[in-house]
Task: structure prediction
Amino acid sequence: MNTGLALSGGGFRCIAHIGVIKALDEYGIRITHVAGTSAGAIIGALYSRGLDWKQIFDFVKRVNIFSLNNYAVGKPGFVDTEKFYSKFSEFFPTDSFESLKIPLFITATNILDGSLKVFSTGELIRPILASAAFPGVFTPIKIADSYYVDGGALNNFPVDLIKPHTDQIIGVYVNPFLKIGIKELRHSFNVLERAYKIRSAKDSLSKFKDCNLLISPKDLIKHGTFSLSDMDTVFNLGYKAGIKALEKPDNLQIPGIL
Result:
């Protein structure tokens, strides 16, 4: 039986994906296909590479992918996305989708013509960086003859990418959407993030029904897209939500349990 794992975007909140991966490992669930968007594409790629949850968490801490310190000069964005390439190449010595142990599908948005691009073959690192390039903050990534930014702009929960290839899907959604007060919009990043959430929420929520198991930690509402603290807290929220969901897995087929 083919089991897919769909990882939403969500910036810093995507550390919760790592906690869910730990829970899946403890339950002995074998994932055969992975789809990821934005920071979810980063976590998904590392998992598809064959890294365990500890190694993925170490990558996030070492590379500091949510840092806004790699300033861009003469480019449209605050952070130069290209500066992360060398760090990613240490973890992906063979820069191709074909080198991965698990088939991976990631999304990116063509910023020039507004189309969605799905990457699953060929060059790997630049599509990962493009998928996670939050518009207006991280600079676009050039791939072939075009430029790409965050896949979450058009598909923030890529369940549909692996639906044709799998018998069941585990979806991990880390963008809880609730009504907020004006006092919570204290900075420009807060406003930008809120507008982004509103845009992606409707499309993402409609895909919940396609997941055999949906994991969405509600307490993540307290953590912003560009937070730089409480990594362990976010990780544990994902882990606890994963364990809770797997204890009552609904219609997910888990070998040795159902």
